[in-house]
Amino acid sequence: MSDVDTLYARWLSGEISPEEEKALKESGEWAELEAIIQALDGMTLPAYNVPEAYTKLKLQQNVGGLARSSQSFLWMGAVAAAACIALLLYFTWNGANQITEFSADLTENTQGALPDGSRFILNDGSSLQFKEGNWEEQRTLNLQGEAFFRVKTGKTFQVHTTRGSVEVVGTEFNVRIRKNVLAVECYEGKVSVSNGKENALIELGESLKIENGQMGIIASIDHRKPYWTQGNSDYKEEVLNEVFEEMARQYSIQVIKPDLMRRFSGSFTHSNISLALDQVCKPMGLTYSFSEDKQIVTILDE
Amino acid sequence: MSKKLCKEENFKELFYSFAGQLRNFVYYKSGNMAQAEDLVQDAFSKLWENCAKVPPEKARAYLYRVANNLFLNQVDHQKVVLKFEKRTHKDRDAESPQYLLEVEEFQQRLAEAIAALPENQRIVFLMNRIDKKTYKEIAVELGISEKTIESRMHKALKTLRKIHKKV
């Protein structure tokens, strides 16, 4: 085989003589080859999901599982297989009925994922429950308290509460349940809210409150994520009683105060109790004092 | 006889490091990605069954051979069409749309020309260009001489250069 038969190959791997280089440049071949290699550098193949492929192989081939059965052990394989099926059935049956519960301590947010990869963040003192086994068919969960959801597109996703229910397909939204209130804020997509009698559809950048079973009006929100996930509680025309109840929950303290039906718009931080009290009390003409152990706050309406 | 590959950790390591390359190899032959991924599964499956008989240093050659045989056994051989994806370039934003369109058109013609190359040239060429393997590595893996690899590379580039001339 003469060197001419490998010239371009050696050009590509940088193994040509100066004379060959000169000849290639003069003939214009160099530029043409260069263009081809450059274009190829911008080309690749679809990514290969290796972990997924390996899992598939393991399922198909029992890799790393029990030793493959030789002739004399075949019957044992059959028994084992039967036992496996029985176990699998048990787990499927059991799994479908198994209720998984997440709850957040009084002073800590809890993050988690649902079986389809949808994600949630639970606010302090909140909890949710769902059935793991049949999640793909029925994306339904019960919620107490408040949670932010980022839902993977798929079948209908339902959040049941004692104050009403919320239904979506794939979106980001926040649900808050308090004594008499269900408040929903939608950050992406569309959310359907129901009080059991009526339905309302809210869209990106909108919020809706059900107060004492009554549908409120749809209002707009100006934030991309609930404030509490960023360490704030935010309110628009909220009764002060509710605001202080939330503060007591966030800081795990007791609040002694008169009945305050006035409405507050603004926010308070979750990181500093004195600052939080200032944020709410000052604009509302209230004063406050701490007990010695700082566990009780007394609010006075001047 | 070494039974190293019967240990799952060794087998898994081989799968993780080599399954992607094997998939590409089969894809270069057929242009059928779904088939290529299936054949990788089947080839590794065979290796697992024979893990006690295959020494680790021969595993890659074994997998190439098995994948090749499985490929040949599949009756339905159609015309090869290769589909590539764009590798994202940071400096792309600076280029004019006109230029990008030209690049895209050129890449499309190139993909067609590569698909039309004789199979043995196509495989070697893409193993070098896409999988970034050296001539020596390809020679070892496919069990052919380095000179043959260089010759196939040269022929492939010669054909592709002619296609470029048509512009």
Strand content of chain B: under 5%
Shape of chain A: elongated
User: What is the H/E string of chain A?
Assistant: HHHEHHEEEEEEEEEEEEEEEEHEEHEE
Which range does the strand content of chain A fall in? 25-35%
| Tally of individual helices of chain B | 7
Proportion in helices of chain B: 55-70%
Number of strands of chain A: 21
Give the integer mean of the pLDDT values of chain A: 78
Which chains share the greatest interface? A-B, 35 and 47 residues
Structural class of chain A: alpha+beta
Query: Tally the helices of chain A: what do you get?
Result: 7
Order of helices and strands of chain B: HHHEHHHH
How many strands of chain B? 1
Sheet of most strands of chain B? none
Low-confidence stretches of chain A: 65-97
Mean pLDDT of chain B: 84
End-to-end distance of chain A = 103 Å
Main beta sheet strand tally, sense and closure of chain A? 8 strands, antiparallel
Could you state the oligomeric state of the chains shown? heterodimer
